[in-house]
Design a protein that fits this description.
Length: about 170
């Protein structure tokens, strides 16, 4: 039985903030896989990118997700988790996967540190190309999609909680 909720989406979609609010509202634990990576690697995401490249960061992210053995948690993934079929299959077995969808203009408005945030992308890839590429992956894995374009984080968490009873929560 799935006892966790996993949030996927672009950097800036609100996964961490909505996740914390949702976990608090539902009486669940909270895990941010980006924080796990930084704690275990003792480096920021950008430092990992600088030393190992975007594929190296994605490999570390996959390993952290595959090592997750939790119950009754909200899990906020890094934006590139959806590149790993193995990681997403694991998350799909232990959780309901929720895509926090926000449009390109909204994400661009929210993110001001695109070049230094530690976003796992090829050096020559534009933010818009990355956005378009990832939307396909997020939709592929999502069991629930929440449109966050006109919602603040509290509203997104409330809308998500309202959608979850039909998924066993």
């Amino acid at each position: 039985m799935k006892t966790n909720i996993t949030l996927i989406g672009m950097p800036g979609a609100g996964k961490s903030t909505v996740g914390i609010i949702l976990a608090k509202n539902l009486g669940m634990g909270f895990i941010d896989t980006d924080v796990l990576i930084q704690t275990h690697e003792r480096k920021s995401l950008q430092q990992i990118m600088d030393t190992c490249g975007h594929l190296g960061l994605r490999a570390v992210e996959e390993r952290e997700i595959l090592d997750l053995r939790v119950a009754h948690h909200v899990i906020a993934t890094g934006g590139s988790a959806a590149y790993s079929p193995a990681a997403m299959a694991h998350l799909g077995c232990i959780s309901t996967i929720v895509f926090l969808q926000a449009g390109f203009d909204e994400i661009k408005r929210r993110i001001h540190n695109f070049e230094t945030r530690g976003i796992a992308k090829d050096k020559n890839q534009s933010f818009e190309a990355l956005f378009k590429e990832r939307q396909v992956l997020y939709r592929q894995y999502a069991e629930v999609t929440i449109d966050c374009n006109r919602l603040d984080q509290e509203q997104a968490a409330l809308q998500l909680a309202a959608a979850l009873p039909s998924y066993g929560f």
